[in-house]
Amino acid sequence: MSEDDNNMEEYPTEIHDYLTAFEKSLGSVDEMLKTMMSVSRSELLQKLDPLEQAKLDLVSVYTLNSMFWVYLATQGINPKEHPVKQELERIRTYMNKVKEIADRKKASKLDKGAASRFVKNALWEPNAENEHTSKTPAKGKKRQ
């Protein structure tokens, strides 16, 4: 009997695909963490602007708390009844605030001078030349 056959007997076969996907996800997280840990935090933060620094910190703490959530679930503890749930909600609140700031930063800004020039040029204004020609009688017609 091979090792895979022994592993298949230890848990129900219908969750095999889920476990395989979970293992693959853990491998991806592990690779990402190794990449992040290969660069010192101070060196990484120097390359980022304050908004990007906040995003990095929030993603890091959210990931850590999410992994703790998974750990609690694997230990048979309901994470929904654990303080980690409130912590994740608090982090999400800050993530939304940072997203709002980033959206405001991306939003187009109104150039008041350009807008007033557009409006001024779009509106018809009679000038002295137009007023003069409209007050003179048309040629060819005689007034009596």
Automatic annotation (TrEMBL):
One of its GO terms (cellular component) is nucleolus. Coiled coil: none annotated. Its main location: cytoplasm. One of its GO terms (biological process) is maturation of 5.8S rRNA. The keyword Cytoplasm applies. It is found in: Cytoplasm; Nucleus, Nucleolus. Residues 121-144 are annotated as: Disordered. Keywords: Cytoplasm, DNA-binding, Nucleus, RNA-binding, rRNA processing. InterPro entries: Exosome-assoc_fac/DNA_repair, Sas10/Utp3/C1D. Transmembrane segments: none annotated. GO terms for molecular function: DNA binding; RNA binding. Belongs to the C1D family. Plays a role in the recruitment of the exosome to pre-rRNA to mediate the 3'-5' end processing of the 5.8S rRNA. Monomer and homodimer. PANTHER family: NUCLEAR NUCLEIC ACID-BINDING PROTEIN C1D, SUN-COR STEROID HORMONE RECEPTOR CO-REPRESSOR. This is Nuclear nucleic acid-binding protein C1D. It comes from Setophaga kirtlandii. The gene is C1d.
